[in-house]
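Kindly inspect the following:
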Amino acid sequence: LGLHGVLVNAPALRMAYLPPAWKILLAKVFSRLLPGLTQKTDLPDKMLSSDHTFLASLPDSSLRHTFMSTRLGMEMLTRGDRLLRLAGHFPCPLLITHGGADPVIDPTGSHAFHDACGAADKTLVIFPGLLHETHNEFSRDAVIARWVQWLATRA
């Protein structure tokens, strides 16, 4: 692949949050017909970060995505198991980070991928107590420092 490494935060391998049944039905119907059709995610900020003051301080909240395509939604709901089965074929150096209290994406998926990953150079870092957007949490400096340190050793 020509990659020096892959860093992924909260990979969507196992969902912790499931949308309402009507949204899942809508996504099933339209993910093939209109894959770009978007729906509001309706995820409240309190599920993404516990640092609400920081989130409110961001200069342009419209840059945070609050919509998801029907196709992406269905892929997230249905492809995690397949990716976990293929993890043994993943060849690149890998850093997986995940908030230990993520209410959106279940951290057990990150554990499972790391354990099954075929790469010799693989690291899993679970940040206890952090939610989905680890880079927007109170301890974001430690999270970003961990990312930078890992990347710097592979540049």
